[in-house]
Amino acid sequence: MPEWIWIPIGISSALVTLVIGFVLYQIFGVRRLADTKVRANRIIKDAEKEADRIIKEAEVEGKDRWFKQKENLEKETSTMRKDIEKQAKKVSEREAMLERRSHYLTERESTLIRNEKYLANLERLLKTKMERYDQLIEEENKRLEKTALISKQKAKKELLKNLRKQVDLEALQMVKDIKERARTEAERTAKEIISQAIQKVSLSHWTESTVSVVELPTDELKGRIIGREGRNIRTFETLSGVEVLVDDTPGAVIISAFDPIRREKAKLTLERLISDGRIHPARIEEVFQEVEKELLVHIKELGEEAAAELGILGLHSELFNYIGRMKYRSSYGQNLLQHSREVAHLCLQMACELKLDPQTAARAGLLHDIGKVAETSMEGPHAEIGARIAAQYGEDETVVNAIAAHHEEVPMENPYSFLVATADAISGSRPGARRETLEAYLKRLERLENIAVSFEGVEKAYAIQAGREVRVLVQPDIISDLEVEEMGSKIVHQIQNELKYPGYIKVVVIREVRNVEYAK
User: Fold this and answer.
1) Is 179 a member of any domain?
2) What 8-state DSSP symbol labels residue 186?
3) N or C: which end of the chain has fewer CB within 10 A?
4) Are residue 419 and residue 449 in the same domain, yes or no?
């Protein structure tokens, strides 16, 4: 076949190949486009579903937040409403007191008006009698001149001499009568003021106990409180300085300690351990430290509440701690904070009656016994210690003297000192307010601890078992094992020389060394 014939055949073959390739390309391109559209539609639908899910979750979360905010707002509103109700109650009570005061002042004003009218009548009567007296003197002078045949001047001298003696006697008698009436009136008024103050202040009294009872859900917890070989209860007693009595009493253990603050720390710690369920030495120490910090905050809040109740402003923040600590102390069995609040109320009421500053009176009454909760390192009577503390924290001389003089150990320099001394006597003399034996017992236990801590190297000391045992914790870096026995003998010897007590007192000296390492 000639060569030129192959040329059109090749061209035709190439064209057919191109056409076939183009057709195939179009067919596969359309399929890929369709697949791409399907995938795109599927992605769009998935995106729409995800968007709907996110929107629904956002709506649910938004509703939850709205309900929580609404609940918080309702709680805040309820709290504010309760505060407003309390303030309204206080305002109404003060309005009632002011109304009674206004009624009393109105009666006093009426009495003063009647007295003024009575004095005016007496003055007119006295003026009339004086005129008659002068007339009688003139007539007597004339009669004497005629009878005695003496000069007028001489008769006047004799008459004046006799009259002077008579007038002096009458004046002395009048002064005596006036003083007697004034004394009687003052006593009557004082009794009235004190009785009104006592009637307006009606606080309850209770005597303090030296034990606290902790309720247990089950008696099985007693074994966990004691721990293996007694390690839990030994750690607890060493940290808190109390004695834990685990006996056959169902559903309860008893915490014994004469120091109420120490006993309260132990009670709160044990209750929290029981609630938590984890009772072991490390956890006991951790919880005790937490409770100790929280109790310090609570004590300050107690002081602030007592001052706010009496409307006392401007107290130094440290004084709130002293006031709050009084709740955990007693005086002759009478709760010290309750006693101080009552004395402050009595001082306030009596100051109002006597036209004195009620805030100064209440301030002195509330602070008069803070010396009883001062550190044991401060020496002297509690009134003197309290006065030093008050002066240290910026109280004025009036309040300081009222605190120092309320037991008449120093002279009373202002009327507020008399008010505090009177109110203190009233509060302490109410039936059932005090108990002498408990105070002596607490002082004996406190003296036991003070004797023990007076030795060098002693870190802490706790009197337990009603004063029949003293546990002494010494510093291991100062006291060696060989010196522990000698330390116990010294403490026993000093107790025998300084204290009187029935039976015997057991002295236990404890030296503990801890080694702490950390594994990484």
Assistant:
1) yes
2) H
3) C
4) no
* pLDDT 10s digits, 352-401: 888 888 898 889 888 888 888 876 567 778 888 998 998 999 888 999 99
| pTM score of the predicted model | 0.48
pLDDT tens for 32-90 read 777 777 787 888 888 778 878 888 887 888 788 888 888 888 888 888 888 888 888 88
Determine the 3-state secondary structure of 458 from DSSP. strand
**For the segment 403-417, what is each residue's pLDDT rounded down to a tens digit?**
988 887 888 888 888
| Distance between CA atoms of residues 88 and 515, nearest Å | 59
CATH number of the domain enclosing 455: 3.30.300.20
Residue 431 pLDDT more than 60?
no
CA nearest neighbour of 407 among 432, 385, 389 = 385
Question: Could you tell me if residue 465 is inside a domain?
Answer: yes
Q: Which of 382, 413, 434 is the last residue of a domain?
A: 434
Backbone angles phi, psi at 296, to 5 degrees: -60, -40
Q: Tell me if 191 is assigned to some domain.
A: yes
Last residue of a domain, one of 419, 434, 449: 434
User: What backbone torsions phi and psi does residue 506 show, to the nearest 5 degrees?
Assistant: -90, 130
Shared domain for 350 and 415, answered yes or no, is yes
Closest CA to 389 of 472, 325, 474, 478: 325
Q: How many CB atoms lie within 10 A of CB 361?
A: 30
Report the largest interatomic distance among the alpha carbons of the chain, rounded to a whole angstrom.
Answer: 210
Q: How many domains does the chain have?
A: 3
Tokens of 94: 């003060």
Contact by Cβ (8 Å): 364, 348: no
Please say whether the beta carbons of 365 and 348 come within 8 A.
yes
- 490 and 425 within one domain: no
Reading the block at residue 448, the tokens are 């036991």
Q: In sequence order, what are the residues at sequence separation of 6 or more whose Cβ sits closer than 8 angstroms to the Cβ of residue 442? A: 210, 258, 330
Report the alpha-carbon angle 114-115-119, nearest 5.
120
User: What's the confidence (pLDDT) of residue 401?
Assistant: 92
The set of residues, in sequence order, having a beta carbon less than 8 Å from that of 268 and lying 6+ positions away, is 291, 294, 295
84: burial class by Cβ within 10 Å (0-12, 13-18, 19+)?
Answer: exposed
Domain that holds residue 188: 150-200
Q: Residue 356: its pLDDT value, please?
A: 85
